[in-house]
Amino acid sequence: MRRFGWVSLAVLALAAASAARAQEAPAASVANTPARTEEAVISYPPSFFAAQRPNTAWDMVDRLPGFTYDGGDSVRGFAGAAGNVVIDGERPTTKNDDLQSMLKRIPAGDVDHIEVIRGGAPGIDMHGKTVIANVVRKKSGGLHGDIALVNIKTESGPDLPQGRVEGSWQWGQARFDAGVLVAKFVDDGSFSGPRYTYDANHNITDFSRMQDRAGGWQNNFTGAVELPLAGGKFKANLFVQDQPYNARYADDFVHAGSQVELDHQDKTDGELGLHWERGLAKGLSVETLTLQHWRRNDFRSSFQAPGDDELFTLGSTSNETIGRGILHWTPNDKLTVEGGGEYAINKQNSRTAFTLNGAALSLPAANVQVEEKRAEGFTTATWRIDPKFTLEAGARVEQSTLTSAGDVVLKKSLTYPKPRLVLTWSPEANDQLRVRLEREVGQLDFGQFVASSSLNGSGVQAGNPNLVPQKDWVAEAAWEHRFWSKGAVTLTVRHLQLEDVIDRKPITDPGCSDIVGAPHYSATCPIGGIAPSIFDQPDNIGGGTENDVVLSFSIPLDRFHIPGGTFKGSSTWRMSRVTDPTTGAKRSISGQHERDQDFHFAQDLPRWKMNWGVDLQTGWSESYYRFNEIDTFDNGSWVTVWGEYKPKPGLAIRAEIDNAGRRPFTVTRGVYAGPRNTNPTPAFVDFQDHNFGMEFYVRVRKTFG
Known about the structure:
single chain, Maltoporin, Chain A, 22-stranded antiparallel beta barrel, 38 strands, about 5% helix, about 65% strand, globular, disordered N terminus
């Protein structure tokens, strides 16, 4: 750990002091104190959030002491994509409808209580997490919903209007939900600013002032129905999204002249999920799930500069079909056993084309049809040994068959066992230690199987269908301490032993001497047709290690003479080491952040019917390593100052100043004359400084029912 933020040091000191002073703390009022149903489960009633005057379930989840929200991962299959929030004890039957958006669609008045389950408890499916939050809704009927209108004024760009209408209707045991979102957005990483190129001696060789614009529209429809069926409960979820996107990257270099890249993408998603569960006998129940997802993506990128006219196109269609069944057995209040299986079929058909000055150039893995059939069997047992100890043990076995047709023909079968063990120890009511040992297997990204492009940057990059998943053994320990009724601090230490890390690896292509290369085309021979040619592609580069330290905290500030104030945050430090396949030197994994930190101050002012606060997301840096290039993206700190006025129940007016510190965002491309192992310094450096500016956000929300 090379850097340890002074804010985090102060938090650690404050947390230590809080432990010493906990016995001196005056008793909190009963209304604001969470109920402890057992050491593993803490229940928060609506009165706990009363001073905040929340509008939605998300406002309540965001204020849970010691809880860090996780929206889940975008992966194939259902089990590995889970977030750490469930609704009425069940995971939403969807992968593509954002979990945070679903929580924002639940009015705060519909929430009966929220449970935080730490380390596992009998009868509760943890979905592979060590801590989850369960939003339990009231059973009252009637119509509920909200209407929200938003306008975002960017400092140096267009207005961004947004509108959302959502509602739910409960009639007896039946429930219906629907929502529509229409929102305009911009890419805050693509904006105007200076651009320089330097030679190997750090002399400026050219200059341009970038005029970049990127953004589009997001149009969503969501619908859900829940009703009794065949002696059990049936739910169906529908999600449809259309997201057109346009970008223009323009430069006017002093020496190289003008160059313009125009990108257009049209992406459409659709998903239908069906879920049914039923009790079979005392302590025995069955659960089934079926999910179907479709996606279409059309992308076109053109680049024009003096003597250089390039066009790259990508068209892809994909679909995923999932079937899942689970049998739950709870013989007593100390033991739960689950077993079941999941079967998924994933298909993607991708077609790419690239032309240079009117001549078509062949791309490696340009047109590929990929199919993956994956089956997984699993069993998990959660045993509450005594009030202080809980043990969760499980095992999964994954077997997949991957076939590829088109430009790359292959077939391979992979089998991976994935054991898991979690031990939770609660020596005192306010302390808990969680230890986890698990075998993790990642998922292959079909997007890495085919070529991609950034014509105004690193150019066209080759794909590689012959990848295997990245794997690791993870050992993790987390200590959680709660204090002052609403305070909590959690320290997590994690070690991962990595295998088959996916990064970029140099490849020698001996058979392309007849291809005339392009300045932006890294997968062809150099100009003149000299063979062999070296390029790179996604590949498995071997093993490595990663060590993580995560600190999260929530501190009530009443004792510091800030009534209704809360200071919370999270800091993550990552230290990974892999062997660079080009140079043989040790480095971090491409694209990994060494540090991520966010801090949030909020104060509730019930007398004024207001809340206000300041949010800070500190800067991060990520680097991508290619055989002849290192690209580094540096993102400065993002500061948001906000206030919300709630003149009466059901009405809220919120105003924000986003990016109040005018966060810098820079891109540095160090391009070498050849492989980095034989060229120690870059032949030239391309430096881009994007200045997005501030945003002014106003939202009016009206809830009803």
